[in-house]
């Protein structure tokens, strides 16, 4: 087992986040916890068990592989919704286990109906409408045909949801595009209803849309980044704060990432550190090597820029981040020794390294940073 570092997942922080979100969205809106990308790096199996203990009843994943992990952990105590990829071979498993899934093309729709008929068990579908993201979704001109098919196949298909996804609700510069998408979604619903059928639920909002466009909340919101205690963008955060008197972040970061010093060295002025010449000491220095690198998800773009905490003080990454190691400047820290704790994300004494701070010294989005944290690192619920 990997012992170089450990990821801690804070159950209380997650509980506070979902309580806050449920209060903002209202009791009538179901909160689906989006756990694709290894639960945004938090560790899928560990995270969903914890989220379930915190009251979450609905999980959204990207593909069958993730759905299977959630299913193995929680069986049918929760609803599992696949928003993305289902291979042909997997449709049977999906239908048999009442896993719900997005359908965005005729082929999959026909296939689902056929397999459901053979299994004599209904496929539970969410029809995704193309409203302007131009990724997946039925085109508006095909919605009538889809509706006719659903009417014809009522014995084999349960029309559970009508849904769409917005193309960048976290930025106000996309305002017009999102507003147009909302309008199109409503048109699709009207067309479908004219065939005498209605979906059980409608849903469209991710974190940003749910905060910025309340009308997108509908019956269910698919919440990823916010439940992990992070804002989709600084703009969404500022927009939220502007509606409040108290200017305090209501969200708590759920993840922390810790490791320890592997070795310490003294170098003199003029010495280069690590591969190449990107860092040269201008004075005598004390440096510490840490057993983590880009293979574990600590991006190479943090070379000479990243910061970590040692003994409650900020230390800068110097030289290039290697595959399995990186080096930090601990010159200013007294009594530092091998085995001392190093914090990459989270608190140490009074100091903190936030996830947002990473985007200040590399061009990584918080989403990207989190999902790149290696799966092999043990996740511990605290
Ligand atoms: C990832 C994803 C979400 C959640 O996005 P957040 O910004 O993390 O809330 C919602 N819906 C779909 C279709 C997604 O792919």
Tell me what the structure shows:
This protein is α/β, with parallel strands linked by helices and 382 residues long. The chain folds into 2 domains: 231 residues, TIM Barrel; 99 residues, Beta Barrel (Lyase, Ornithine Decarboxylase, Chain A, domain 1), CATH 2.40.37. Helix content is 30%, strand content 25%. The protein is built from 12 helices and 18 strands. Strands 1, 10, 11, 12, 13, 14, 15, 16, 17 and 18 form a 10-stranded mixed β-sheet that branches. Strands 2-3-4-5-6-7-8-9 form an 8-stranded parallel barrel. Strand 4, helix 5 and strand 5 form a beta-alpha-beta unit. 41% of the residues are buried. The model has no long low-confidence stretch (mean pLDDT 95). The protein binds pyridoxal-5'-phosphate (PLP). Pyridoxal-5'-phosphate binds next to helix 9 and strand 9.
Which features does this protein show?
single chain; about 375 residues; alpha/beta; TIM Barrel; Lyase, Ornithine Decarboxylase, Chain A, domain 1; 2 domains; 10-stranded mixed β-sheet; 12 helices; elongated; binds pyridoxal-5'-phosphate
Sheet/helix structural class = alpha/beta
Uncertain spans, ≥5 residues at pLDDT below 50? none
Counted beta strands:
18
Given this structure, which CATH class of the largest domain is correct?
Alpha Beta
- Give me the CATH superfamily of the largest domain: Alanine racemase
Mind summarizing the main beta sheet?
Answer: 10 strands, mixed
- CATH fold title of the largest domain: TIM Barrel
Number of separate helices? 12
Mean pLDDT: 95
* Heteromolecules bound: pyridoxal-5'-phosphate
- Percentage of residues assigned to helices: 25-40%
Q: Report the β-strand fraction as a percent range.
A: 15-25%
- Termini separation comes to 19 Å
CATH architecture of the largest domain: Alpha-Beta Barrel
Q: How many domains, in number, for the residues?
A: 2
- From the spread of the alpha carbons, the general shape counts as elongated
Which sequence of SSEs, written as H and E, runs from N to C? EHEHHEHEHEHEHEHEHEHEEEEEEEEHHE
Rg over CA atoms, rounded to whole Å, is: 24 Å
